[in-house]
């Protein structure tokens, strides 16, 4: 006689499979929304911790950007300045210029003279630094002209001055100097005739506190000067700067690049950001402990519920997933809200500080806070990992609950 067992309904047959992810998400959501106060306090703790970290990191990155822009200015990251450690042995002359210009990865290259001189205008005289530049050098230097223009290739006896030089002459209205004649005297080294020229002022620039005047380099070349003070070149790609500098330095010359300054600034702010994050981490530790406490209490309150779910066919792995999803929901929700509030606070502070700066005469706007995309994604990824770590022990205990012992509890 063959025994026949009744066929189980389809729903009961599916009990051997795991609970659908949508169902687990719904159960996790219902559990968090049922205990509203507890969930709010837990998320609020995460908001404070993540908000503080995000706010301080954004502040540190914003300061780093401001300092970098202020130090580097308009210089190109791909530029390299070349000087000679001993001009008597290694001269920066036309032969050297052509040799370096033929190196691989050199895009453009300019040259300049630099000598002390004196300038006379309207009965006043002052000492200054005179730069003889070619069009490529002044283009690579990114000099900011506030009035007039720079030197063009067809210009002969022209010059442009910086505001500090005009102040030393007692001139307040910079426009009054444009198209006026000035007398320039530059005593050169032995073997070269001194430069004594009447030049027309074609522009005014703002380059700092020292007096500076820029003239066409052919004035120095016509006087018999053959050794340049500096070369400036642009590499075809930032990744080739290191190799290009090594090739130039192997010839005996010195090189500098804005990349060096950026590396030093990044190194300083790396430690500064670590200090800022350590302050915000205090609130984050409290938030993590609060989230762990919430999950642990939830586990103790729902022991019979979990036992019943297992008895009805839920797998122990499903109970583990339930607590992991709850932890991730708490951490991600707190992180998103915390970052949004930190960004809003940063924007408010930016507006206040810019208005205060404008009231003190600063016209350029600035951002004290920077929020790059990698910071947002990094914070979210970090909080997901925190949620997984916090949920490990409660989820493990939920997975090991014996349904018989759980249902026996009152």
Q: Tell how many strands the DSSP assignment holds.
A: 10
Q: How far from one another are the termini?
A: 46 Å
| Large-scale geometry | elongated
Task: Please give the share of residues in helix.
Answer: 40-55%
How big is the Rg?
Answer: 35 Å
Q: Average the pLDDT over all residues and give the rounded result.
A: 81
Task: Write down the secondary-structure element order.
Answer: HHHEHEEHEEHEEEHEHEHHHHHH
Strand content: 15-25%
Biggest β-sheet description: 6 strands, mixed, barrel
Compute the number of structural domains: 2
Please state how the strands of the largest beta sheet are arranged side by side.
2-3-8-5-7-6
- Determine the number of helices (DSSP H or I, runs of at least 4 residues): 14
Structural class computed from helices and strand pairing: alpha+beta
Poorly predicted parts: 1-16
Note down, in words, how this protein is organized.
By secondary structure, the protein is α+β, with helices and mostly antiparallel strands. It has two domains: about 10-70 and about 265-410, no CATH class; about 80-235, no CATH class. Helix content is about 55%, strand content about 15%. The chain has 14 helices and ten strands. The protein has helices at about 10-15, 20-35, 35-70, 95-100, 135-140, 165-170, 220, 240-250, 260-300, 305-310, 315-360, 375-390, 390-400, 405-410, and strands spanning about 80-85, 105-120, 125-135, 145-150, 160, 180-185, 195-205, 210-215, 230-235, 255. It has a six-stranded mixed barrel. A hairpin with an 8-residue loop joins strand 6 and strand 7 (about 195-205). The radius of gyration is 35 Å and the shape is elongated. The model is unreliable at about 1-15 (pLDDT under 50).
């Amino acid at each position: 006689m063959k025994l026949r067992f009744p066929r189980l309904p389809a729903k009961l047959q599916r009990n051997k499979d795991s609970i659908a992810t949508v169902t687990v998400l719904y159960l996790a959501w219902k559990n968090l929304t049922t205990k509203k106060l507890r969930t709010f306090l837990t998320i609020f703790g995460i908001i404070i911790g993540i908000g503080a970290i995000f706010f301080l990191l954004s502040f540190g990155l914003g300061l780093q950007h401001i300092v970098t822009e202020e130090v580097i200015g308009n210089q190109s990251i791909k530029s390299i300045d070349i000087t000679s450690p001993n001009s008597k042995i290694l001269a920066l002359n036309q032969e050297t210029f052509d040799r370096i210009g033929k190196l691989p990865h050199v895009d453009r290259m300019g040259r300049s003279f630099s000598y002390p001189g004196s300038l006379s205008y309207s009965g006043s005289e002052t000492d200054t630094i005179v730069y003889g530049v070619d069009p490529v050098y002044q283009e690579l230097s990114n000099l900011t002209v506030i009035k007039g223009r720079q030197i063009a290739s067809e210009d002969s006896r022209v010059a442009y001055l910086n505001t500090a030089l005009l102040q030393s002459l007692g001139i307040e209205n910079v426009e009054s100097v444009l198209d006026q004649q000035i007398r320039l005297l530059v005593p050169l080294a032995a073997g070269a005739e001194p430069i004594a020229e009447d030049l027309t002022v074609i522009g005014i620039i703002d380059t700092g506190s020292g007096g500076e005047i820029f003239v066409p380099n052919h004035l120095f070349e016509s006087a018999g000067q053959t050794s340049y003070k500096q070369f400036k070149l642009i590499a075809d790609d930032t990744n080739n700067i290191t190799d290009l500098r090594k090739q130039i330095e192997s010839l005996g010359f010195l090189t500098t690049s804005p990349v060096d300054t950026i590396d030093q600034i990044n190194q300083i702010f790396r430690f500064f950001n670590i200090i800022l994050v350590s302050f915000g981490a205090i609130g984050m530790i409290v938030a993590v402990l609060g989230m762990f406490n919430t999950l642990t209490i939830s586990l103790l309150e729902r022991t019979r519920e979990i036992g019943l779910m297992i008895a009805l066919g839920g797998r122990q792995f499903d109970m583990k997933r339930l607590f992991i999803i709850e932890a991730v929901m708490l951490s991600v929700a707190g992180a998103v809200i915390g970052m949004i509030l930190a960004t809003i606070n940063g924007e408010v502070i930016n507006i206040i500080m810019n208005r205060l700066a404008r009231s003190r005469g600063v016209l350029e706007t600035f951002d004290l806070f920077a929020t790059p995309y990698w910071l947002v994604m990094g914070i979210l990824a970090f909080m997901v990992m925190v949620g997984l770590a916090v949920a490990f022990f409660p989820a493990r205990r939920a997975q090991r609950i014996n349904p018989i012992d759980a249902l026996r509890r009152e």
